[in-house]
Write a structure and sequence with these properties.
Strand content: 25-35%
Largest sheet: 5 strands, mixed
Number of helices: 2
Distance between the termini: 25 Å
Radius of gyration: 14 Å
Structural class: alpha+beta
Order of helices and strands: EEHEHEE
Strand order of the largest sheet: 1-2-5-3-4
CATH architecture: 2-Layer Sandwich
CATH class: Alpha Beta
Shape: globular
Number of strands: 5
Number of domains: 1
């Protein structure tokens, strides 16, 4: 297990039990910006192998003030494409997907990915 956060740029990640947590600092209105950013981070910094089975992925976009005009479905697709092949083999393995926009203390995106157990 990784002993804390890896990465020193806009993207950081860590393992927390069975979950992988990824944070991206800053927001933009272009969902397509995130796919190459996160993909390059995973390619260069991430060492774990993808797993089989069903996964839950939770994506939370935190904003300060007015939320940026970004379609959450496009954001989710870009991020799932970026982590596919690193955390799971295929995005068809995502059995539960939560995408949320909320006001926060700073502008960032947080992703949590973990194996889905049982039927809940």
């Amino acid at each position: 297990m990784t002993p804390g956060w890896i990465g020193s740029g806009k993207v950081r990640a860590r393992e927390s039990g069975e979950a992988v947590e990824i944070t991206i600092d800053g927001l933009t209105t272009q969902a397509k910006y995130y796919k190459p950013l996160v993909y390059e981070f995973m390619r260069k910094e991430w060492s774990s192998r993808p797993s089989w089975g069903d996964f839950t992925v939770e994506i939370v976009m935190e904003h300060v003030g007015e939320p940026p005009h970004i379609d959450l479905d496009n954001l989710a697709k870009a991020l799932l494409d970026a982590i596919k092949g690193y955390l799971f083999h295929d995005d068809a393995q995502v059995a539960r997907l939560l995408v949320e926009r909320r006001e926060g203390e700073r502008e960032r995106i947080a992703i949590r990915c973990f194996p889905r157990r049982g039927g809940s």
